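[retry 2/3] Threonyl-tRNA synthetase: previous attempt timed out, resubmitting with same input.
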Amino acid sequence: MQWESSPHVIKDEVKAVLEFINYVYEIFGFKYELELSTRPEKYLGEIETWSKAEQQLTEALNEFGKPWKINEGDGAFYGPKIDIGVFDALKRKFQCATLQLDFQLPIRFKLAYSAKDEAKIERPVMIHRAILGSVERMFAILLEHYSGKWPLWLSPRQTIVCSVSSGSVEYAKQVLATLHEAGFHVDIDVSDRTIQKKVREAQVAQFNYILVVGAQEAETGNVCVRVRDNADLATMSVDGLITRFREEIGAFR
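[retry 2/3] Threonyl-tRNA synthetase: success.
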């Protein structure tokens, strides 16, 4: 049984994973670096198999079209790998995504499949892949990358509704319910503090949008929209705001 009889399959699968990684990282706005890690001093398997595997990764990287470099001797003991280093806002590099060829576990698990002609049994190759890596590390990188100012689609604090006075509390609750039903993360501040304090606290908490509602907004069915960078955006209808949110989130998809 052999795996190298269909090397183009390996190359195509590797390229597909690289394209997926690129798709995800472009959404986050990450810049990244590709490294091909080759056979270490202590390894399993035959050198010929390693050489063929490294060749497949090399061809996949070349066809992927992004710059890459070789990291000699840093492969896993079971096969070569491609590591992806992500740069944060301070230009520090973190190893996140990885793609590894494993031709040892299929042997140990005695995995096999029939070739197209069904007369030949071949050994598959296992591909280990991680797109984000450690969730905790990725969150830390994202915090640095966005400087705490999460984009709307990723933000745990998308918007907050602040009432101007007790007379607009019920309308503030209606706005909250409408936005929540539309699928957004919404908080509310109907305390008896001044509207200036409410808005300031919402800005410090990094809410993407701050919605101020008073008697006039309750009468017209609108909201006064502010963004976290201390800018008044506009007065708009709740439906118009929902459309704006969806368009902003859709821009990242």
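[retry 2/3] Threonyl-tRNA synthetase: Residues 1-5 have pLDDT under 50 and may be disordered.
[retry 2/3] clearing retry counter.
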